[in-house]
Amino acid sequence: MKKWKLPLLATPLTLGLFAAQAPAALADISTTSPVNPLTVGAQDLGPTDPSTTINATVVLKIRNPQGLQNYINQTVDPASPNYRKYLTVNQFRNQYAPSQSAINQVIQYLAQYGIQASAYQDDLVIHATGTVDQFQKALSFQMDNYKKNGKAFRAPKNLEKIPQIIADTVLVVTGLDNFPSFHPMSTKVNTTGPEAQTTSVQPPTPGKASVPGQLTATDAANLYDVAPLYKQGITGKGQTIGIATLANFVPQDAYDYWDAIGLKSAKNRISQVHVDGGGDLSSDAGSGETTLDVEQSGGIAPDANIVVYDAPNTDAGFMDVFYKAVSDNLVNTLSVSWGSPEALYMANGQTNEVQAFDQAFMEAAAQGISTFAASGDSGAYDTNRGLPYPYFSKVVGADVPSSDPYITAAGGTTLPTTLQMKHGPVSTGNQERAWTWDYFSDYLSQNYGPSAIYDLGYFSVGGGGAVSSIWSLPSYQRGVAGTTTTPSGQSLMDETQTPPVDYVDLPSGFAGRNTPDVSMNADPETGYLVYSSTDGGWIAEGGTSFVAPQLNGITALINQSVGQSVGFLNPQLYALEKGGHPYGTNAPFNDITAGDNWYYNATSGYDNATGIGTPNVANLAAALKGKR
């Protein structure tokens, strides 16, 4: 498999480890032919019944965004009097939310059309309920019904328009369609074709060594040197972990998992918040994803409480789950393991929805909530997995929300092991490496031909990592050797049409936000056990969806060790990376220098295959504690 390595971007060093952290800015994006990606390859069934009820989310613009960015910078600057001093929701609302008169104007505008509306506690989100007819008149669009791959859904046929009278206040309206756009970042071993793997999954035995592919949260803690914190009595006590997800789950599954691996946990540590009525409860809906998020984060931090925010798998649900979590302000850490490619947000000529996510993460940072997102399980080629992606060309790109500059992007690695395959053994290597399944290439080529890596579904499975085409390089990544720019000649094409239709040309050579930030074991071949009753009991999985909640739990431990929330992690992580001794004995990170993610090679220092590397948790906690 041929791989390309992009030239390094030369950037000047920042002034000091915690120089003012200006945020990344949105890129200028032009679309060749704006389109709603949901409707590509779908059958248009005609107009939606105008009496159909819609529950939409109206996201309002932050007031004084530069002031908010400056305040967030101060919370991570040890020289600032606001270092690790965080806002309450009331303080955030009073300083950065739109004025009450502006909010009232939006509510009154919607009311003219019969749409009922009310604001969230932070005054950045308005819930709006009305009929299709009412929303079509208020926002000047047409709603049609569609069918694709057997799934029926509704979606705007043309882009909605924010009327001028409220345009200064409203950022975006989401939830007009009801297509399940987001996918979880969990992956199983290959189960198709002549090399289909059948794994005999055995429940864990406390005190007995686990094998790669059937590891537990305890094994993850051992891999990344959490044990010294446990010996100090650091178990997450006093911390609250937040999980943002798009599927409901069975809480008892997590308790059964923790019991099975020998952890003693309070029997009331989990609470649930069903946002917008909550997500569905089924294997198809992704309940196993929610289950593993809870089991892994809570397994790493066994005495932390957990609040699970689950919402429907819709644009509005995904938006609301974050705004609800930050508006409640009950959690110290928050992770999400669902996402969607940046290129799909770019295809319709609007990135306001991405900016709306960003506002929620900015509020989280200002309130001291550390946030994490899985970077994806399709290597650098994020458009290669799930619906509606098969209709589009495969482009190198980052995932939303992990590409956001205010969130920590979780990448994936593979542990060293030997796999017993149908025609003989396959080695993953002799050291922890970036996760892709290209280590199967020689074996598959020898036994099935040179195209087998593609034909049998091994490409492009691997840890997500690329350069954002939406967000510019944040200052905390400036001066980091190994950051790159976007590749040239990339276009998102609809390949179902003849000739193919070009929807958006991705920027070439754009100095964008680089992902991931840090990585941990994610390859299902060396992955983990999950207990999920909706998936039939004990199963073995992998994916960066394990890494995000593990980092969530790890940060709960670090918070307890430090004695306060460390807040927005990225500037602090990169300051340590640039500080002179990021790797080696007593250092906070382990450098990953082997493997790739199909496009980017893992090299010494930062790279788009594994980010800074993997955490040495005890040393990382000590380094962050030393910054008090």
Short note summarizing the structure:
This protein is α+β, with helices and mostly antiparallel strands.
List its traits:
single chain, 628 residues, alpha+beta, Alpha-Beta Plaits, Rossmann fold, 2 domains, eight-stranded mixed beta sheet, four-stranded antiparallel beta sheet, 16 helices, 25% helix, disordered N terminus, zymogen, S53 family peptidase
Descriptive notes:
- InterPro entries: Peptidase_S8/S53_dom_sf, S53_propep, Sedolisin_dom, Tripeptidyl-peptidase_I.
- This is S53 family peptidase.
- Residues 190-211 are annotated as: Disordered.
- Residues 190-202 have a biased composition (Polar residues).
- Residues 214-627 form the Peptidase S53 domain.
- The structure is a single chain.
- With 628 residues, the chain is an alpha+beta fold.
- It has two domains: 41-62 and 97-174, Alpha-Beta Plaits (2-Layer Sandwich); 183-188 and 216-625, Rossmann fold (3-Layer(aba) Sandwich).
- 25% of the residues lie in helices and 20% in strands.
- The protein contains 16 helices and 28 strands.
- The strands form nine sheets. Strands 9, 10, 11, 12, 14, 16, 19 and 24 form an eight-stranded mixed β-sheet that branches. A four-stranded antiparallel β-sheet has the order 3-4-2-7, sandwiched between helices.
- It is globular.
- The termini are far apart.
- The model is unreliable at 1-23 (pLDDT under 50).
